[in-house]
Design brief:
heterodimer; A: 851 residues; alpha+beta; 6-stranded mixed β-barrel; elongated; B: alpha/beta; Rossmann fold; 6-stranded mixed β-sheet; 37% helix; globular
Chain lengths: 851, 234
């Protein structure tokens, strides 16, 4: 054993330069895994710490409808028993605000709170401490961006609904504001007591009514459930039929953790992909290493060491290198984390998170790095067994290759272990299998395509240029690095171009949707008596051709299908399961819309429904819940039970939202006298001033109507897409880096043979320049082939994901593809020549003598 | 004692089987110095490789101290070489990544000897290269490399030393020094020495000679010493 370790150390001492590449491959992969995991784990630790402040309470009772007496009574009961301490009521709703006397409006997310707010966390204002007294008697707190947008200052007035509010402070940070949640506008705080005076709580408005409960916490006892969880689950049962949701902050924490775990595992897969690419490099380095060491291995066997000892020597080397490479990876990751705040400082400050290496991430990185080094090198190392000491006496006549059971068994085990590592890193066996399967399939395709393309360039071997002829011959020569370069570079190109192409498709789809003719403003919560006035207003401002169609909307819950009750246990269950009992926004009309297609059944005619109500259901609901034509469905529409027969199924293109997208459409009739509101899609014009004017007029005339400016929303989405693009680019750069590492490794792999060839060519009169040209052409041809294969794969990937994954129309990206191939060919040629520089530099005589 | 019983070696060369060594019976006594002579391609090196268990014979048995080495596994053979056989090659075959000292050290480390460093130092001194001990093979001349190879062959005090044209790759002066060294160590250790050589003069020093031609032993009395010498000189 001591001998094995001593020999391993001596070997590393002598050939560390050749093994440097091994080392770097592992380091890059491990660095990406450790950095990604550390960031996410830091964020998670930070969020968990802040979970109660984020929720703003121990338990939140929440409803989209005003909280009824029953709910309040139940909470009051709990309070009298002492299980609930402070109760703080709040209402959240989206609305439009504007400065008094000015037409410019903005959508904001209004939060009306009581003096007990906040129960947890702290509210920070610019320049002064927060106190509820600031809100009392029509005071308002706003975000700095709103002041800038509306050109307002503290002390001036803001019109909310029909009431003026005085701006009394600027919010710096607010507890309980869920980060990353999609928001329609900036936050505004008022006193709950002032909310009725705004007139915003009229019928049909979308407000979230909340009771924030503080639960006095007894000292935690082992084995006892958290009192806030217990209370939340009991209240949920009490409120089963009240459309009320109850959540403990512990549940939010759980959900947040789950989401973050998923993100962590998926992102770590990216790290694993990088590491596997590195592993391919490790495997090729090891193979060449063994080839170069054949004589030393024979000598060791000749002086008495067994195959097992020799294998142990090289495995020990791999372990040492793998450990050292992984450790270097951790150091790199630590450096990256130090630099990270420079780039994403904002986010870190916002999350109040300190980035740093986490122990878990470091241990995982080390373990995965070591595993990948061992797994990828063990098969090539098995060649050690086949080295016969007799080759020291004479060049062996090679025996026929025999089927090596051990090698294939080990290779199979290695494959299984890699699937295991992938599954471990993804946190899912299925994803692990998918990733590994994808890799194998991709490798196979790249291999076949490579062979085909090498054949295709063979006619060039009759080319007039000596250098080109030699280059083509070298590419096709058996046993050279062609296959490994094709694989590594092809995979790299595939990843980078594939992701880029997808991105092009995504962005194009967005720009298509804000096309010239599409409506870009949505009006919500229009009341029946406001219809005529609103239509007239838009007609006057916008021209008669742009008069919006008003679509009636109601909210309904499905309570039964075909006599089968669909009353799920509670509001929470409904949300979790996304099932039938969730609330749907429904409408009624007599004709199909342009974005709808009848797929089954018969559409009703213009006449209103008779006794029996009729309904048309979206295709996806039919599939999910096994509804059939003629089925009887029961709906709860604002407390009224309506029974309707399913007469048709439609397919709706939800991306074309000009006419809205409705899962459930009724035949006109049953709701004629029911209270309902309307929505409308308006084209606001291109001129920002005109848009602002129209919004201002609508909001000042009808304060309860919410205007959603699609252009603003799309701007937000575009920012998100930009951020995602940045992340993807970083990932692509990592893959590219590992791709070039593999390339450098593959080139240096065959260098010892190349040095000898170049020496012979030089003695025969070839100039260094000719040899350089040969190398340049050889690697250029290889790069072009690898680029072509990768680009073809990328096109296929983006097409498949666009078509089946994202349901987008696919667009080719010809310039990207062509550019990708050219850049790949150039990069491979450059790296190939640079990595072979000493081939050119070596003096022929010393090389030939050494052989 | 080494006994060869009906030992032959046939390899597949393209489509035809090619017999390198025809069945041979031969006995080498302990402490004997045997020279194997013959022209290139006569099967000398093959025979030496078979004796060391570097290769397996196609037929026959090879007994070393009564043990049939053809029945040993690859690892068993490795152990046998470590304990009983020292090998000196025409092309030295030192491990390029190890220093001269370490090259001498390995067989003893493999055998697990505690005194390996001390002994390695003594051996390097015995072959006269103490001052070059920490050089790599590429920094040593051919003669120096061969001295280290001899020191390595002697590391575990093997009763048998096999040498495959040890002077074949050296100039005549250096070659003579190497031969003197080999004979001196053989004398001091009373080991069996089997030497493959072209050199008639060297062969004449041996206790007995085995002459091979086209893979067959040639009767000694059929070839006058002068003729054998002329052949070797060619």
């Amino acid at each position: 054993m001591i001998f094995v370790i001593r020999m391993a150390v001596r070997e590393i001492r002598a050939s560390w330069q050749r093994l440097l590449f091994f080392f770097v491959c592992i380091a890059v992969g491990v660095a990406s895994i450790v950095a990604i995991r550390s960031v996410i784990q830091s964020v998670r630790q930070g969020l968990t710490r802040e979970a109660r402040a984020m929720t703003g309470a121990d338990v939140v009772v929440r409803s989209d409808r005003p909280l009824g007496e029953a709910v309040r009574a139940a909470v009051a009961r709990e309070r009298s028993t002492g299980r609930v301490g402070i109760v703080s009521e709040a209402v959240e709703l989206a609305t439009m605000v504007r400065p008094a006397g000015v037409a410019t409006t903005r959508m904001v997310e209004l939060r009306a709170v009581e003096s007990t707010f906040p129960l947890y966390g702290t509210m920070t204002l610019q320049g002064k401490p927060y106190s509820h007294d600031l809100l009392r008697d029509h005071g308002v707190l706003v975000r700095p961006e709103l002041l800038a947008q509306l050109n307002l200052r503290v002390g001036e007035n803001l019109l909310i609904g029909t009431r003026q509010f005085q701006i009394r402070g600027v919010i710096q940070s607010e507890p309980g504001r869920n980060l990353g949640a999609f928001s329609l506008g900036s936050r505004v705080f008022i006193d709950l007591a002032d909310l009725p005076s705004t007139g915003l709580l009229s019928f049909g408005s979308r407000a979230s009514h909340q009771l924030l409960l503080q639960v006095p916490s007894p000292p935690p006892l082992p084995g006892r459930r958290d009192p806030s969880l217990l209370l939340a689950s009991e209240l949920s049962k009490t409120f089963v039929n009240d459309f009320v949701g109850v959540r403990s902050y512990r549940q939010n924490e759980g959900r947040m953790n789950q989401n973050l775990s998923r993100a962590e595992n998926y992102l770590s897969l990216v790290g694993l992909v990088v590491l596997i690419l590195g592993g391919i490099g490790v495997s090729s380095v090891t193979r060449v290493f063994v080839q170069q060491k054949v004589r030393s291995i024979a000598i060791l066997k000749c002086v008495g060491s067994s195959s097992r000892q020799v294998l142990a020597i090289y495995l020990t080397q791999v372990v040492l290198l793998g450990l050292a490479g992984s450790a270097l990876g951790v150091v790199i990751a630590a450096g990256v984390l130090q630099l990270l705040p420079v780039f994403v400082g904002d986010i870190a400050a916002l999350l109040q998170v300190e980035y740093g290496l986490t122990v878990g991430a470091v241990l995982q990185g080390l373990a995965v790095g070591l595993l990948v080094s061992l797994l990828f090198s063990v098969v090539p190392l098995l060649e050690v067994r086949n080295v016969k000491p007799s080759l020291l006496l004479r060049q062996d006549i090679p025996s026929l290759p025999q089927f090596d059971w051990l090698k294939w068994t080990v290779a199979t085990a290695v494959g299984a272990a890699l699937v295991g590592v992938a599954a471990w890193q993804a946190g899912s066996v299925q994803v692990g299998l998918l990733l590994s399967g994808g890799f194998v399939a991709l490798t196979f395709v790249l291999h076949l395509a490579g062979i085909a393309l090498i054949r295709a360039v063979q006619p060039l071997r009759f080319a007039r240029s000596f250098a080109l002829r030699q280059a083509v011959l070298h590419v096709a020569r058996p046993g050279n690095q062609t296959r490994i370069i094709l694989l590594a570079v092809g995979l790299g190109t595939f990843f980078i171009l594939g992701v880029r192409a997808l991105q092009v498709n995504l962005l194009q789809d967005f720009s298509v949707q804000v096309g010239e003719d599409a409506p870009d403003m949505f009006l919500m919560d229009i009341q029946s008596d406001q219809r005529a006035g609103l239509t007239a207003l838009i007609d006057r401002e916008n021209g008669a051709e742009n008069v919006p169609k008003l679509i009636p909307v109601l909210r309904a819950r499905i309570t039964g299908v075909r006599g089968r009750e669909v009353n799920l246990e509670s509001y929470e269950d409904v949300r979790e399961r996304g099932g039938l009992s969730r609330e749907f926004t429904i409408t009624y009309r007599s004709a199909l819309e342009a974005n709808e297609k009848l797929v089954d059944g018969k559409w009703w005619d213009e006449t209103p429904a008779g006794e029996q109500a009729e309904v048309s259901i979206e295709e996806s609901l039919r599939e999910r819940f096994n509804i059939q034509i003629g089925d009887e469905m029961r709906f709860d529409v604002l407390g009224r039970i309506i029974s309707a027969r399913v007469t048709s199924f439609r397919e709706v293109d939800f991306r074309d939202f000009r006419a809205g997208g409705f899962m459930i459409v009724f035949r006109p009739g049953p709701f004629d006298n029911a209270p309902h509101s309307f929505i409308a899609a308006v084209k606001g014009g291109k001129d920002p001033a005109a848009r602002a004017r129209l919004q201002g007029l609508i909001v000042s005339g009808y304060p309860n109507i919410s205007v959603i400016d699609l252009r603003e929303v799309l701007d937000t989405i575009r920012t998100i897409v930009d951020n995602v693009t940045l992340a993807v680019t970083v990932v692509g750069a990592l893959v590219l880096l590992s791709g070039s590492l593999i390339l450098i490794g593959a080139v240096s792999m065959t260098k010892f043979r190349r040095v000898y060839e170049a020496a012979i060519l030089k003695t025969l009169g070839a100039s260094s320049r000719l040899i350089a040209t040969m190398l340049l052409l050889e690697y250029g041809v290889l790069g072009a082939i690898a680029g072509t294969v990768g680009a073809a794969g990328a096109i296929a990937l983006s097409w498949a994901v666009a078509r089946y994954g994202l349901d987008l129309p696919w667009q080719p990206a010809p310039f990207l593809t062509l550019g990708g191939i050219i850049v790949t060919a150039g990069a491979v040629a450059a790296i190939g020549v640079l990595a072979s520089l000493d081939v050119l530099r070596h003096k022929p005589l010393s090389t030939l003598r050494a052989e | 004692m080494i006994e060869l019983r009906h030992v032959s070696k046939t390899v597949q060369s393209g489509d035809h089987p090619l017999t390198i060594l025809h069945p041979l019976d031969y006995t080498i006594r302990s402490g004997e110095f045997v020279a194997i002579v013959g022209p290139s391609g006569s099967g000398k090196s093959t025979l030496l490789g078979l004796l060391a268990g570097l290769d397996a014979p196609t037929t026959g048995q090879i007994l070393i101290d009564g043990v049939d080495i053809t029945r040993l596994t690859e690892d068993g053979l490795a152990r046998l070489r470590g304990e009983k056989i020292g090998f000196v090659f025409q092309f030295f075959h030192l491990v390029p990544s190890l220093t001269a000292f370490e090259n001498v050290l390995i067989p003893m480390e493999i055998a697990g000897r505690r005194d390996a460093p001390t002994r390695a130092r003594q051996l390097v001194e015995e072959v006269g290269l103490s001052d070059r001990a920490h050089h790599y093979p590429s920094q040593l001349s051919g003669g120096e490399q061969q001295r280290i190879a001899i020191a390595r062959a002697l590391a575990n005090d093997p009763p048998i030393v096999l040498a495959d044209e040890p002077t074949g790759n050296l100039d005549s002066t250096t070659g003579r020094h190497i031969m003197d060294l080999l004979l001196a160590v053989r004398q001091s250790r009373a080991s069996t020495l089997v030497l493959v050589t072209h050199d008639a003069e060297l062969a004449s020093l041996a206790d007995s000679r085995l002459v091979l031609r086209d893979g067959r032993p040639v009767q000694q009395n059929e070839i006058p010493r002068a003729a054998a010498g002329a052949e070797a000189a060619r």
